[in-house]
């Protein structure tokens, strides 16, 4: 199993103990697209942060490609994030005074086995805009740059936090179609978190979180192209 989460627990103490994750478990095969679906406060972001090595679990385990992430120390987690993961966020976090190509190269220059910048630009449909600055791009184009920046490092796992949360329907379809293309072209395993149930049809596996627990797991035998998604 490529991604395995077992009995994961997490609590925060702010004067009152809040149990955010209560024995969460999920599994994904290599090359799948997975969606973690749930309302605000269900534990989605905390779960993704632990899988991404930027937060710590109280108990349970996370394994990615045979490596137990929950056993790593701080310096090992840095190497894990640098070598194995790509991140796509709701807000693009581009460097405003760097061009599209330079935003991508910032990541490729510190990656162990990066893809070629021109190959990634072609994959996301931005070859003709590589010398533009973020302010000269639409919201959808900026999100495409953030996806290109995430995949140029050739990650084992691409984590997407509400990647269409700030976009309209048509632009969202374009971004989700691009993620499907990345999955097919590069074989990248993709895990998204969202509150939008409309996109679950494009995923191989869907994990519905409710109050810190996995309430339902669905495996889709037929994958819907993102262009057909409606909401």
From TrEMBL:
Q: Which GO terms describe its cellular component?
A: membrane protein complex
Q: Which CDD domains match?
A: ABC_MJ0796_LolCDE_FtsE (cd03255)
Q: Which domain of life is it from?
A: Bacteria
The answer to whether keyword Cell cycle applies is no
Annotated InterPro entries: AAA+_ATPase, ABC_transporter-like_ATP-bd, ABC_transporter-like_CS, MacB-like_ATP-bd, P-loop_NTPase
Keyword Nucleotide-binding attached: yes
The cross-references to Pfam families, in alphabetical order and at most eight, read: ABC_tran
Domain ABC transporter: from-to ranges:
3-231
What keywords appear on the UniProt entry?
ATP-binding, Nucleotide-binding, Transport
| PROSITE patterns named in the record | ABC_TRANSPORTER_1, ABC_TRANSPORTER_2
**Molecular function terms, GO-annotated:** ATP binding; ATP hydrolysis activity; transmembrane transporter activity
The record's comment on protein family reads: Belongs to the ABC transporter superfamily.
Name of protein:
Putative ABC transport system ATP-binding protein
Q: Which species is this UniProt entry from?
A: Anaerosolibacter carboniphilus
């Amino acid at each position: 199993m490529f991604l395995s989460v077992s009995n994961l627990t997490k609590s925060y103490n702010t004067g009152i103990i809040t149990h955010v994750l209560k024995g969460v478990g999920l599994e994904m095969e290599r090359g799948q697209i997975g969606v973690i679906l749930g309302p605000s406060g269900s534990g989605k972001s905390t779960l993704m942060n632990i899988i991404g090595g930027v937060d710590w679990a109280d108990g349970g385990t996370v394994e990615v490609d045979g490596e137990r992430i929950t056993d790593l120390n701080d310096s090992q987690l840095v190497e894990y994030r640098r070598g194995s993961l790509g991140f796509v966020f709701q807000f693009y976090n581009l460097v405003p005074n760097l061009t599209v190509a330079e935003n991508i190269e910032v990541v490729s220059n510190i990656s162990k086995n990066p893809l070629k910048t021109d190959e990634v630009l072609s994959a996301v449909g931005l070859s003709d805009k590589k010398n533009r600055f973020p302010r000269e791009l639409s919201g959808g184009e900026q999100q495409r740059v953030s996806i290109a920046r995430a995949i140029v490092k050739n990650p084992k796992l691409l984590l997407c936090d509400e990647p269409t949360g700030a976009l309209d329907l048509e632009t969202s379809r374009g971004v989700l179609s691009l993620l499907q293309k990345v999955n097919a072209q590069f074989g990248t395993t993709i895990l998204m978190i969202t509150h939008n149930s409309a996109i679950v049809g494009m995923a191989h596996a869907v994990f519905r979180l409710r109050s810190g627990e996995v309430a339902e797991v669905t495996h889709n035998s037929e994958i819907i192209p993102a262009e057909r998604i409606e909401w």
